[in-house]
Design goal:
Blueprint lengths: L1 E3 L2 H13 L4 E6 L5 H13 L2 E6 L19 H10 L4 E3 L3 H4 L18 H4 L3 H16 L3 E5 L3 H13 L5 E5 L19 H22 L5 H13 L4 E10 L15 E8 L2 E8 L1
Parallel strand pairs: 1-4, 2-3, 2-5, 3-4, 5-6
Antiparallel strand pairs: 7-8, 8-9
The protein binds adenosine monophosphate (AMP).
The site of adenosine monophosphate (AMP) has 17 residues, from α2 and β5.
């Protein structure tokens, strides 16, 4: 495996791979890798000749009071993990290289970014779309892999690729969970053992709601109330930001839950903001 640190080197490398006729799969991440990230690597390895994984904690997608400075990082460990899981190139650009002085171009996907996380994290998806667009231009992948754990992000990238006629296939991969159901996330590291226990209620609540739906309950209010009660009963839950049942394509809220809809939640456990979702 080769670690590529500069934008110029990565761009040259991807040009060379294209010339050689190699197909490139790309997995963009913010590092502190876990099984969720590795599931994307597995998918990419199956579909492509070459797999590129990037690690870049993108400053422009964090709000002023968010966790940019304390976001978990361990590059040495990540290099080992990538090496032992068959990543071909690990791209780790610096902030200065990605956003040199005078940087002034941004990508805005309208509509679907107004709801769910977009309503609470101003500018977040503008930062995400911008960095992913830049990474796509540098890595020039044939396919790019995104986890449905960040369902809204996956849709935003799909929309950007479609609207801007980018010749890239965006592949959405299933949520990887811990044994007890908690969705894997680099941010789980922030949780104390007690908070970790409270956090399990998020996935348990989603499973419960899905079970009720499968038994015939289609009223979004009833379903979200069950989720709210389950999560709120936990001592370390500080705030539920949203619980919404939405259309899987438009993210519009539903008057009646249907198969294929997404129940999405964002919850603060202690000071840690966790998101999760389930497909009905
Ligand atoms: P992050 O490093 O958190 O920005 O995530 C990088 C990519 O990994 C994104 O496409 C995420 O959706 C995906 N990802 C993160 N956690 C999981 C998970 N538990 N299951 C599946 N994909 C995930």
């Amino acid at each position: 495996m080769e670690v590529v640190k500069s934008v110029k080197d990565m761009a040259e490398l991807s040009k060379k791979l294209k010339k050689e006729g190699k197909t490139v799969g790309f997995v963009p991440t913010m590092g502190y890798l876990h099984q969720g990230h590795l599931s994307l690597v597995e998918c990419s390895k199956k579909d492509n000749d070459i797999t590129v994984l990037s690690i870049f904690v993108n400053p422009i997608q964090f709000g002023k009071n968010e966790d940019l400075d304390r976001y978990p990082r361990d590059i040495e460990r990540d290099i080992q993990i990538c090496q032992s899981h068959g990543v071909d190139y690990l791209f780790v650009p610096s902030v200065e290289d990605m956003y040199p002085e005078g940087y002034s171009t941004y990508v805005v996907v309208e509509g679907i970014t107004d709801v769910l996380c977009g309503a609470y994290r101003e500018g977040h998806f503008k930062g995400v779309a911008t960095v992913v667009n830049k990474l796509f231009n540098i890595v020039k992948p044939d396919r790019a892999y995104f986890g449905k754990k960040d369902y809204q992000q996956y849709l935003v990238i799909k929309k950007m690729v479609e609207d801007l006629n980018m010749d890239i296939q965006v592949v959405g991969c299933p949520i990887v969970r811990e044994k007890d159901g908690l969705a894997m996330s680099s941010r789980n590291k922030y949780l104390s053992p007690e908070e970790r226990q409270s956090a399990v209620s998020i996935s348990q609540a989603l499973f419960k709601a899905k079970e009720l739906f499968e038994k015939g309950e289609t009223n979004p209010q009833t379903l979200t109330e069950v989720i709210k009660e389950t999560i709120q009963s936990q001592p370390y839950v500080k705030e539920i930001q949203y619980i919404q049942i939405v259309d899987p394509k438009t993210l519009k809220t539903k008057e009646k839950a249907e198969k294929g809809d997404i129940i999405a939640v964002a919850v603060f456990v202690g000071n840690t903001r966790l998101i999760d979702n389930i497909e009905l």
